[in-house]
Write a structure and sequence with these properties.
The protein is an alpha/beta fold. It has five helices and six strands; from the N terminus they run βαβαβαβαββα.
Length: 169
């Protein structure tokens, strides 16, 4: 892992929500959603909401907008629905909601994925950005993709990004 350009001050606990987009997963079979939740908790953050939704655009949009309006949530993490199959609509809904994008997130995720899965990484439409002062990260639904995104990108920068959004030092 690359060195941080400057260290963050004291730790910050971030209120988070986890959304799994899947037509087949249940709370018992949602390994990716469980992985996101346990990684956030282990890093000292709070998971304040968790839901599994079918890959239905209106449901994704409504849930994300509701969570963005919740003042306790500083970050929303999604998994699933980022591919190119006809039912994969997460990317399209999230991209349409973002006030600001973090293009480097998707670029870095695909670069890191390429090292693990080769050229199939190009089919990932991982995306991140901000809507109404809430960070949104959207990853593919595979557990390996979630692990990679959480360990390499989201957890190392979550506190820093929240501090920037909230004007904290």
């Amino acid at each position: 892992m690359a060195a941080q350009p400057h260290p963050d001050p004291a730790p910050l606990t971030v209120g988070c929500a986890v959304l799994t987009v899947s037509d087949t997963r249940t709370p018992d079979t949602d390994r990716s959603g469980q992985l996101m939740q346990s990684a956030l908790t282990a890093a000292g953050h709070r998971v304040l909401a968790y839901r599994i939704l079918s890959d239905e655009p209106d449901a994704i949009r409504t849930t994300v907008l509701d969570w963005c309006a919740d003042g306790e949530l500083a970050a929303i993490l999604l998994n699933g629905g980022t591919g190119i199959a006809p039912r994969d609509t997460t990317y399209d809904e999230i991209a349409a909601l973002l006030d600001k994008t973090l293009p480097g997130f998707g670029e870095l995720f695909r670069y890191l994925s390429y090292g693990e899965i080769g050229s199939r990484a190009m089919a990932s439409r991982a995306i991140a950005g901000i809507h109404q002062n809430t960070l949104i990260f959207s990853l593919p639904g595979s557990s390996n993709a979630v692990r990679l995104g959480m360990e390499s990108l989201i957890l190392p920068e979550l506190t820093h990004l929240v501090r920037q959004l909230q004007g904290l030092r």
